[in-house]
Amino acid sequence: MKARAYLFAALLLSIASQLSSQIINEYAFPALPLKHTSAEIISGSETFVVQGMNFDQWFNPSFDMGGGMYIPFFLRWDGNHTSMPILLPDTGTEQIYAFDSQIDLFKFSSLLMRDSIICEMWSTVRSHRSDVPPLYLSMPEHNYAFASQSTFTKVSRDSGCLNPSIAVDKKNTVHVVGEQVSPVMNSPAQKLFSKYSSEIKYRMMDHQGNGYQSFETVGKGFYPEIKIRNDVPYILWFAGDSSTSPVFYMRVKNGSALGQPPLINYPVKQLNYIWGYSQLASQKPLVESLSWEVDTSKNVHAVWLSKIGETNLTVIHSSAGKEIFVDTSKKIITAGVKTRFMPNGEVRIVCISSDGMLHYFVSTYGNVITEKKSVDVKSSNAVLDDYIVDRRGNEHALVQNVNGLSGLYVIKYIGTDSAKTILLSKEYVAGRSSFVDSTNTVWVTGSRDSTHVLLSFNLDAVERLADFVFPLRVGNEWHYLVYPEPPMGWPDADVQKVSCDTTMPNGKTYFKIISKFMPPRFYRKDGLQVFQYQPNDSTERIRFDFAKGIGDTIYHDPAHSRLTITINSINPTSPLNPESRVFQFFGTVPSGWNDDITKVTDSIGITYMSAVGPTWELVGAKVDGRTYGTLLSVDEKHFKTPATFSLSQNYPNPFNPSTTFEYQLPVSTMVSLKIYDVLGREVAALVNEEKSAGAFKAVWNAKNFSSGIYFARMTVKNFSDIKKMILMK
User: Which residues lie across from 569 on neighbouring strands?
Assistant: First the structure.
């Protein structure tokens, strides 16, 4: 009976965390030095790269001070995994002292050339803010670098330049545009300014920076952007004499004769001072969600949101020989818009309004904006991640949070009567840009909990997806009361934990489950099917299938007719989570048990199991950082071997002069634990040797070091973690 109870309990955690290619694929980012990451997709014609910012921030309220560090990076995709990070040869920092702060502001312009060379131009300017306006800037500069393989080569650095933009033509000539700043020095001694004017400068070069032409002045203004259409450069900017101008003009100039009259000359009203801080000095955009394009007839079209007073969706069309057509008739409350510019000059616009409707608008020259289609997403907190056009020209929307439920959704065929909403996953939050490859697979950056990942899903394969997630992941745990059969005294407590993942002799990776009562068990998930590995014969058998319906058979052994598992009910809600469905499985599993009843709850795990023998009832769980129900206090002796690699925050922190680190190793391995200063220089090595599995401590005595911020980095096998600390003498 006891052996049978062990085997029953082993099935309580039989679902792996990573979704397979049948739904959505997850590819981990490589180890990065700092804690947080933001990233987006940069698309080329046939491939893409990931551009991101790796950063960390800290604040000590006791001393009213804080800071941060920022490292720009790129990742390539080789078809199987992401590359090691390609770090941009520039970093930024942030410092906070009470009401004063200084931070490096970046503006990036990236392009991916046909031969997969990454070209990058960026500007940096340091912002100085206090509780009393104005906000000051230091002298900016912009830089250019390119990466043909795994490292960037910096080519140029231009002082006094802001907000660069680059584009490439068919001859691989790189076209560059940016602002040349002329500041009005408020603090000449510190070379700080809050007011300035800018000239828009333009030049050309090859991707290695050779053949640099001298800058040509296009006009005066701010925030330039360049596009190449039919090998002709088109430049858009906001024209204005200074950063204190009450009105700016959006202008577009094109062709080799950059002195042509503007194609667009439209006033954009802008409040330049909010609580005394200049919008331009803060380096904030003058309008929201600006996008623009040139059609096949060389007409220019632009879309943006104006939020001065009521929110206006603004569309402008310029047509050769005609007046500029401006349409602000559509008033809508939305957080942003996505656009598609058609070759014939038609503009298609997608947005989600605050009342939970996804709108599909169409705008053409001379006609007011019309709504072609709307989809009720039934959620006031829905977010439009991206407007996707697949390789067949079909249009789809990637949306976060639908029907009041969190999750990542795709709304297929927007703008048609065939529009359908499909849940991709409840586990991910997606980025704001995507790439569609030749197989109609969508690639997008995303995050799961605090882990940043690259995601993909095939649009042709998601016509119909089951809405079910079993989020088994290393560190998750489930707390059960185990009732004996027949009832005898008080129930026992059982905690099941996911300790690690491991590759078994059949070449497949399984999650290892440890608990109070049983030897380790191994499980994996393929799509919506869950498999259990049998160590005795190195085989696996299916245990759950969440794509099936009531009455469907999950497993049947023709040689043993009694070995059958079926679904006998699917309930729409769960007591632990009203938003989740519950599958109830009934039948005999391959090891010979019979009359098993197992209940599995969406997004939580197994909540109940009964048989001829003990009954397990879930009373609490810790799943992906969220706690359900009541966690039990149980004997933890069976968890002597750590489940995962980990490095705990040092204590005390801040410290003087000594501090202690605790770290855990689930297996014997080589361990490195080193200390670095804010410039990334190694200053101490606490551990650099082979260690057995277990829990350890390391002490750093910093009596010979000066006060400041330091970082501890632990590296073992494929694991790396960094902790920041403050030495305060």
Answer: 584
Check residue 8 and report its DSSP letter.
Answer: H
Question: 432: left (phi > 0), else alpha (psi -120 to 50), else beta?
Answer: alpha
Angle 280-283-288 from CA coordinates, rounded to 5°? 90
**SS3 annotation, 30-59:** CCCCCCEEEEEEEECCCCEEEEEEEEEEEE
Give 455: exposed, middle or buried? Use CB within 10 Å, 0-12, 13-18, 19+: buried
Contact 512, 520 (CB under 8 A): yes
**pLDDT tens, position by position, 205-250:** 888 888 766 788 888 888 999 999 888 889 998 888 776 665 677 7
What is the Cα–Cα distance from 241 to 159, expressed in whole angstroms?
21
Strands (E), 484-538: 492-503, 509-514, 521-526, 529-534
b/e for 391-417, b at 16 or more Cβ within 10 A? eeebbbbbbbbbeeeebbbbbbebbee
Q: Are strands 451-458 and 441-448 parallel, antiparallel or unpaired?
A: antiparallel
**Contact in structure between 402 and 1 (CB atoms under 8 Å):** no
Element (H, E) at 4: helix 2-10
The Cα 302–Cα 325 span in angstroms is 11
Two structure tokens written together for 361: 């608008």
Q: Which residues does 64 contact at the CB level (< 8 Å), separation at least 6?
A: 97, 98
Which residues have a Cβ under 8 Å from the Cβ of 681 and sit 6 or more positions away?
none
pLDDT over 70 at 452, yes or no: yes
Question: Which one, of 118, 142, 130, lies nearest residue 192 by Cα?
Answer: 130
What's the rounded Cα separation, in Å, for the pair 175 and 155? Answer: 15
- Whether 219 contacts 199, CB under 8 Å: yes
Residue count of the chain, please give it: 729
Residues 552-583: tens digit of each pLDDT:
888 777 766 556 777 777 776 666 666 677 88
- Give the long-range contacts of residues 214-218, CB within 8 A, separation 24 or more: 215/180, 216/258, 218/177, 218/253, 218/258
Computed over every residue of the chain, the mean pLDDT equals 81
Instruction: Return the minimum-mean-pLDDT range out of 93-107, 479-493, 667-681.
Output: 479-493
Residue 672 contacts residue 687 (beta carbons within 8 Å)? yes
Question: pTM for the complete prediction?
Answer: 0.65
- Asked if omega into 657 is within 30° of 0 (cis), the reply is yes
Torsion angle in degrees (nearest 10) through CA of 625, 631, 632, 636: 10
Beta bridge partners of 250: 238, 266
Cβ-contact 289, 303 below 8 angstroms: yes
Distance separating alpha carbons of residues 589 and 596, to the nearest angstrom: 8
Q: Is the Cα torsion angle 212, 213, 218, 219 positive or negative in sign?
A: positive
Tokens 């520039």 belong to: 90
Closest CA to 127 of 286, 284, 290, 246: 284
- Name the phi and psi angles at 694, rounded to 5: 150, -170
CA terminus-to-terminus distance, the chain: 63
Phi then psi for 308, rounded to 5 degrees?
-90, 105
* Token representation of residue 433: 């840009």
Q: How far apart are CA 167 and CA 294, in angstroms?
A: 14
Please state, as a whole number, how many other Cβ atoms lie within 10 Å of the Cβ of residue 356: 18
pLDDT at residue 635 greater than cutoff 90 = no
Which one, of 203, 184, 188, lies nearest residue 121 by Cα? 203
Helix %, strand %, coil % for the chain, to 5?
0, 60, 40
Query: 14 pLDDT band (50/70/90 cuts)?
Result: very low
Half-sphere exposure of 22 (CA within 13 A, CB side): 13
* Tokens (6 digits) for 450: 């605090």
Q: Cα-flanking dihedrals φ and ψ of residue 590, to 5°?
A: -60, -25
Tokens of 16: 């792996």
Provide the residue type at 457 as one letter. Answer: F
